[in-house]
Amino acid sequence: MSETHRPPVEAAEPAAGVQAGARVLAVIPARGGSKGVPGKNLAPVGGVALVVRAVRACVRARRVSAVVVSTDDPSIAEAARTAGAEVVLRPVAIAGDTATSEAAVLHAMDAHEALSAGSTDVVLLVQCTSPFLTSDEIDGVVAAVVDGGADTAHTVAPFHGFIWREPAEDVAESGSAYGVNHDKATRPRRQDRPQDLLETGAAYAMRAAGFRAAGHRFFGRTALVRTDPAKVLEIDEPADLRRARALAPLLDPTAATPTRDDVDAVVLDFDGTQTDDRVLIDADGHEAVTVHRGDGLGIAALRRAGLPVLILSTETNPVVAARARKLSVPVLHGIDRKDLALKQWCEENGIAPERVLYAGNDVNDLPCFGLVGWPVAVAGAHDVVRAAARAITTVDGGHGAIREIAAWLLGPTLAR
């Protein structure tokens, strides 16, 4: 086994000044520009934008006193505020590709303290690019500093792989690849090797005074907080985003279907959501579609439960209006911008968009998905729509998908 070299630990003052009840500030850097994944911080995973996922994890953490998003982008700022964070607008000087996360954290901490007229004891750096970070993990790094006496702490995951490195280009022809954390001539069993720990890049906690003095996040005594290796994923490339979206139904603690407590209104697309997306046309050009009786029962149950229901469609078609009359549900159809119509309807009815469940199946539903708190795709929806959804029905549109949604909200008896 090759020798492990450890860097010297910097001297630091004891952490006695950080006590229980400390003021803990979580800072989430979220620039608008991203070359690897354009618009990355607003990209949805499990139907929720990455920046919103990070804010929610911090807000739910028991030991976090305040949450600040540092950004240069108005859309990110709006999403962050809606999710419950303060927003600090980042100046151009620290908003470029070469700007460090530390610079954003220091600026945000200064801005927050100026507004709150109070000092920060512990500051957190929380990354949007780790979509499966939990509030328990955030509390864990805070506890390592506040209770454990560490100067800094960050999340890590157990790692058992053999790391290799290729030789430098100038010796590539004659040189040989070599082991970094092992001697390639010896292949010890996993249980016989020292445990390697992979930095996840998700959450870092630092004593605020020490962070200001050092200017970086690894000063003094560093504690490591272990996390589940299965959840470790940093989104830097489009392939990472695709993988996160595929894993979200398995890893999200919030991937469960919504309940009545989560939703104040239900908005439904028509074609492909309440129908099987086929249109029958007779010789005179009259159109007919197929709907599911169970969906009608589900919509009636939602209305009896006091949930407003709206049908929203881009089609100008008498079939849509006829179905809405049959169900005694208001309808907005012939709409070019469904998201604008939905936003206006929410404002007129005093309904917060984040408390709306919107069910759809095709790409023209995506703007509405970005507006509501519960974007739902029917089983046969377009792949892009399924990837952006927070929940997906088990049956296709026109085959009882709306009744299934009603059963989520009101109870399983509706599924009969």
From TrEMBL:
<dbReference type="InterPro" id="IPR023214">
    <property type="entry name" value="HAD_sf"/>
</dbReference>
<dbReference type="GO" id="GO:0046872">
    <property type="term" value="F:metal ion binding"/>
</dbReference>
<dbReference type="GO" id="GO:0016788">
    <property type="term" value="F:hydrolase activity, acting on ester bonds"/>
</dbReference>
<dbReference type="Pfam" id="PF08282">
    <property type="entry name" value="Hydrolase_3"/>
</dbReference>
<dbReference type="Pfam" id="PF02348">
    <property type="entry name" value="CTP_transf_3"/>
</dbReference>
<dbReference type="InterPro" id="IPR003329">
    <property type="entry name" value="Cytidylyl_trans"/>
</dbReference>
<dbReference type="InterPro" id="IPR029044">
    <property type="entry name" value="Nucleotide-diphossugar_trans"/>
</dbReference>
<dbReference type="InterPro" id="IPR036412">
    <property type="entry name" value="HAD-like_sf"/>
</dbReference>
<comment type="similarity">
    <text>Belongs to the KdsC family.</text>
</comment>
<dbReference type="GO" id="GO:0008781">
    <property type="term" value="F:N-acylneuraminate cytidylyltransferase activity"/>
</dbReference>
<protein>
    <recommendedName>
        <fullName>N-acylneuraminate cytidylyltransferase</fullName>
        <ecNumber>2.7.7.43</ecNumber>
    </recommendedName>
</protein>
<comment type="subunit">
    <text>Homotetramer.</text>
</comment>
<dbReference type="InterPro" id="IPR050793">
    <property type="entry name" value="CMP-NeuNAc_synthase"/>
</dbReference>
<keyword id="KW-0460">Magnesium</keyword>
<dbReference type="InterPro" id="IPR010023">
    <property type="entry name" value="KdsC_fam"/>
</dbReference>
<dbReference type="GO" id="GO:0006054">
    <property type="term" value="P:N-acetylneuraminate metabolic process"/>
</dbReference>
<keyword id="KW-0378">Hydrolase</keyword>
<keyword id="KW-0479">Metal-binding</keyword>
<comment type="pathway">
    <text>Amino-sugar metabolism; N-acetylneuraminate metabolism.</text>
</comment>
<comment type="similarity">
    <text>Belongs to the CMP-NeuNAc synthase family.</text>
</comment>
